[in-house]
Amino acid sequence: MDRQFYYELKVIPPSKYYHLFLDFLLEISDIGLEELDGSLILRSENSFQDIQFAINYFAEQLSKKFGEKIDLEIFEEKRENIDWIKRFQESIKPIYIPPFYIHQSWNPPKDGAENIIIDPALAFGSGHHETTSSVIEFLIKIVGNSDRVLDIGTGSGILAIVSAKLGAVVDFCDIDEVAVESAKENFQKNGLQFRNCWVGSANGTDEEYSIVLANIVADVIVALSNQIANRVEEGGYLVLSGILVGKEKRVLDFFPQFTILDKIIKNEWITLLLKKDS
Fold it and tell me: Which of 243, 236, 242, 225 is nearest to 259 (CA)?
């Protein structure tokens, strides 16, 4: 931004609907988004009047769907222009999920750990969300050398990169081209290779995999359930995440050919480990 001032929009949704508002903002806006302490922050040289209208309309539709009033806080401020990219970088802290130390290129590596560099594009999360850490915990348990992994909705590529670090042959996809490019760049920064990637969803291939990952919201998992299930080979694993507690049964109803092996619950989020029946 070259102007003296910029606009900052801060949206604080209810925690149980946080991920829905996050996905909505990523869908309607092509500018950088920061996640900070339960809030979603956008910055632009232009006012956010249209986006505020869209957010309020989205909240009204969710209220009708779920039968409860969804109260959210929205603040827009005109601020003096500063180096907000630097501020964004400073807000992202490394995380340690043994043996992996996930850090950004502007933070130093950790001695004695398996270091992973993840530089999230400004429009994507940094791997700190409960759903991401839960999937990583399952990956550490189940991924072995030469496993074939498909990461659906890869985002920054963090789950695909962890899988590759564990010895898997990795494919990944995302409906957002920026996400796919971000994941490819992060693979390069870690000196790792993936086999294939594409812009789109699970129907971008006919192959079956030993492990399939889908860290996306419950409604999207349900909508893509046939695609997702068909990508898992018999006896293979399926990790589903991004599911709010209370929606587990609805999601599982769409995967009758799978047996649930384990689950991780962190705050309001649940992550499921399933195995496809032989």
Answer: 236
